[in-house]
Here is the input.
Amino acid sequence: MRIELEKRPKVSTLFSVLSPFIAFALTIVFGGIMFALLGKNPVTALYSFFVEPLSEVWSLHELAIKAAPLILIGVGLSVCFRSNNWNIGAEGQFIMGAIAGSILPVVFYDWQSPVVLPLMMLFGMIGGALFAAVPAFLKAHMNTNEILTSLMLVYVAQLFLDWLVRGPWRNPQGMNFPETRTFGADAILPEMIASGRTHWGFAFAIVAAVLVWFMMRYTLRGFEITVLGQSARAGRFAGFSSRKMIWFSMLFSGALAGLAGIAEVSGAIQQLRPVISPGYGFTAIIVAFLGRLNPLGIVAAGLVLALTYLGGEAAQLSIGVSERVTRVFQGLLLFFVLSCDTLIHYRIRLVWERFAATKTEEAH
Amino acid sequence: MKKLLVALATTAAVLGVVSAASAQEKAKVCFVYVGSKTDGGWTQAHDIGRQQVEKELGDKVETQFLENVPEGPDAERAIERLARSGCGLIFTTSFGFMDATIKIAQKFPDVKFEHATGYKTAPNVATYNSRFYEGRYIQGQIAAKMSQKGLAGYIASFPIPEVVMGINSFVIGARSVNPDFKIKVVWANTWFDPGKEADAAKALIDQGVDILTQHTDTTAPMQVAAERGIKAFGQASDMIAAGPQTQLTAIVDTWGAYYVKRTQAFLDGKWESTSSWDGLKDGILTMAPYTNMPDDVKAMAEATEAKIKSGELKPFTGPLNKQDGSPWLKEGETADDGTLLGMNFYVEGVDDKLPQ
Here is the structure.
């Protein structure tokens, strides 16, 4: 007997709805087994992973803070990926956005004004977009592979930030430690509601998701993105330009990553440090695919991924497992979600050996 | 709105249950780790300290920890989680947790916090540190005796005062034995990255150093030194297992004594915000056994250790010159703690330009 995957003639609506639930159930079963093998109570473990973080207000705020950059970057990337442009360098654009946005509070720290914050956000978007313009230019005009160029530029951005905070932008009152000045009150993204520290970055993420969803569904631009992504040739017949699309999608995703960067720095960190992101730009790629490149799906995916991070911490405390175990569990969840999505396009068929053998003979 | 109210009511109920429960339970002492508790270096040393608290005060307290907590907003969440879960005393064990600790401490005035190696305190935030440089002085002396070329390699993490102080102390110790001794420095720009640390070690050995010391946390440099057949010093934990024929000694962080002392004060209601900077004499750091060296070198190291403990010898005592040869400390003059904690220059004998 063997198992075969057979392509469905049509995408299965049933399984596109069911697959996340199947994945979740499988994660619970296998995660439960893993915790049981480690000698921990599976019920407590799963409770602290999925329920505990949602049961308290402060924890919901933390969820929003963790999810905001993932969603914002993921939404931008979905446009890029849909149009068949593979921007892998969102992490770098996130950092460059954060740097560009921090020019005002770090270099012109004396300037206090209500326009500082909007300008910072604008600079952040420009910074991210400009950095994405490099791979965009190289792809549009030199036919360079954007996966490589955008990825390599991540390291450039990381090292540039590192140099800045140790060199020209180092806080003169900071005892030589590699940090910039802390931002003034006018440069800090305020909290949204009084009950916790969720800042407006989360609102940016939701608004961006809804706008992009609208754009993809109801506008000519959205149609253009989809057509060019599926077949550049068909797009050409419709009068769409692949080259312009490269520019648009890269700049767009870069700008959103940059906005995520400056929102994170201004709202959550409030100064620049050598490291400002635990890999948000890369995790957002997972988020984008987990959300099936649909902006609203990405919101859900971002929240789920953030939940597993928070749940992992809760589990460390409540059942005393190592942080590595919680990462394995997170990996299980992602693995099952992505592999169950196979069911949308493929049917699983059990092939009995004897039957298969006769069939091959017939074919001869 | 209604949902929010329900959520708030639930939270209040949960918090109520938690605080009611903890009244009967043991006091909770919690730790935030930047690395893995089995990293063989910095974090492991803190975890051994935590275990000592469990062992000595286990009938009165229970301990909890979060490991691999990245510095930044994630640290804030981790610390807040501990504060909310009923921890009465929280040790945050990395410099990068400083601002997060201060922020959360403002939110939870009843919880006590202790931040390692930082400089910001508050009524409920104490800081603690260890005079690692005392151990580095001894290492410098050993290096000067053991090195044939009079040249040691130093794998440094970040150019912060703590690390610069260590480099200087090593050089001052070495030059007290061999006035021409020099060191080369490689900045790894990480606390914990076996790959980078190993590369730094190889680069230094290729440049001709025959003694290696490190201010990073993994055993990778020790392993490289063992492969290349030179001697090296361990950091934060005793790394003899990584280099049985290689390690001369190691600075072993023994936070346990401090943790027990502070936990006891907390239990007695006598906890106060302090800035503690203990040294060899207080037992907050110890030297791993002096191995792989002749007896006379060992005797010298032991004598120096005893002199530092008794206070007879202070590593930063003049006459000392800065790197460019300009005088820094006059004969018999000793640097004060403030100068040490803000140190951003090299002393004579360092073959490197301090990243500024």
